[in-house]
Amino acid sequence: MKDVISITGAGIICAIGNDKVSVLDSLRNRESGVRSVKYLETVHGELPVGEVQMSDDEMKAMLGLASDTVVSRTSLMGALAIKQALSQAGIEKTEGRRVALISGTTVGVMDVTEMEYHRNKAVLNVRDLPKGNECGKSTEQMAALAGLEDVELCTVSTACSSALNSIIVGAEMLRHSEADIVIAGGSEALSRFHLNGFNSLMILDGRPCRPFDADRAGLNLGEGAAFVVLQKDASRPLAYVSGYGNRCDAFHQTASSENGEGAFLAMTEALESAGLKASDIDYVNAHGTGTQNNDMSESRALSRVFGDNIPPVSSTKGFTGHTTSASGAIETVICLLAMQNDMIPANLGWEKPSPGLVQPSMGVENAVLNNVMCNSFGFGGNDSSLVLSRSVREDGTVDMPVAEYETVANVTIDDVAQLAELREFVSPMESRRMCTLMKASLLSSLRAAKEAALQCPDAVIAATSGGMLQTSIQFLEDMEENCETMLKPTLFMMSTHNTVASAIAIRLGCHGYNITYSQGEASSQWALRDARRLLESGKASSVLVTSFDESADGGFRSESMVIRKKL
Amino acid sequence: MEELVNELKKYLIEALNLEEMTPDDIDSDAPLFGEGLGLDSIDALELIVILDKNYGIKLSSPAEGKNIFRSIRTIAAYVAEHRTR
Questions:
Q1: I need a labelling partner for B85 at 20 to 30 A (CA). Which of A44, A87, A426, B59 fits?
Q2: pLDDT band at A1 (very low <50, low <70, confident <90, very high)
Q3: Residue A149 CB burial class (10 angstroms; 0-12, 13-18, ≥19)
Q4: Do B45 and A432 touch (CB under 8 A)?
């Protein structure tokens, strides 16, 4: 029998509510959570944001922590959402069962790191920073805060699609019998790093955002966390995860392609894996950020998938703001609430149609939603799509062939002198924004692909503990020196952990599966496990796996390999 | 004006990290975006930072800079007219 993946519990905390009931109320009452900054310490009071309406201290109190405990807001929100999800799933003790917590985040505990740096920059050594740039740190913290013991921890970092990709990884782990219970989702707190980063890209709207509107002028940054509990063959699930797709736009580090190729491929794969036709989808929760570029590209992709019969579409970012890495899970839970309560949430802020743009739904109160699609796209072209269903067809067996595979190339780059070899593959213009670590990992990857005589791998998987550490430090310094104004956009766009996997995809024209793991020293193991799952299930016959890290004093190492199904 | 043109080229090379390039390699009249030098949307944002930090010129969006950023010479002409420092 085909493995059926059920959602048995869900938790959410975001600008429109601290639990499912309050979020549903706000959705029904069309009450936006986008407001003036209240909790984040920043000079940018002019930018509306979607903040969770609780202070760190209030969250600490809910979790039984002393107010002087130093812990990231990302971890606090994550722990609260995890506890809600476990409670709904009726899971109190996990003894004897294999449990995995998979969380998506981009800057993890950066809120704590940047505050320490801001207050103590005279004495703080930048070498203390590596831990502060590790995404996995927030996952460790939230597991401890939620009281999870003996749980496998995994962090996915694919920018704004991180949480949706966590759910996809969780479903695949269940299908491959690597776990009995998966808690998957994501968390991202508003931080000065993120707010200033997006501001440097000039894509923040000074007014409440208006996704898909002719006069849209950018996004509002939000924050929050959401997690779902995934299990196989549960008796009374909230819904089924019936299909999903993870693809790469392979176009540009921050811009989406005009024809929405990555989004189109992700939605198409999600439908195929669910065994559904486009006409079976009753509602699409769009990524719909409100930027000129995303909304046009996503509209084009929706037209390509659904033709003239686009189902009701809405972006709920007018309610929550763009909750970045957490958005995929937050919107998955919003989709669940919509299905359970027969409603379609409104695309708040929309007024004016524009040629080529989707005309979004302004809300429906008596909708029957059997199959719902949730889109989540990230910088680096990391585009993913999920399908939730009320019921699933159990249509026969799906063989999980045990394929044999082998490593056919393995290249390590750890010396600055080797970097000159990059010219064989990349022009000076193309490498103008690349830091040393980026060059090293791109070179090791392209060399490995060449040694394996592989033009384009079916999948690209990256693993890194601290990501682009030097670049992140530089952006923090820029933020302090220039008081949060006129910061270098290049530093922010190159600071995310997924830039390497994205650059490889762009260079090789690889639109296939693309993901980045960041779980301390276990990062590479997670990458290799994913590669094995892809090869075993026949989803890929060649996978490029790259791992890379640098130290604050300039040392670096990148190792890339090509793993292939044995011919 | 030639002095300003050269100064802008130096800022451009530094801010955009145009490796292996000297001011002489950049044609003052050639298009900066698309078929010319081949700059993109992120470079346009870096140009806005250059104008703000060095000349006190404030542009609120890349769209506003579209005509100004056609070539090094069009930037120089705009800077000469609008600079506040």
A1: A44
A2: very low
A3: exposed
A4: no
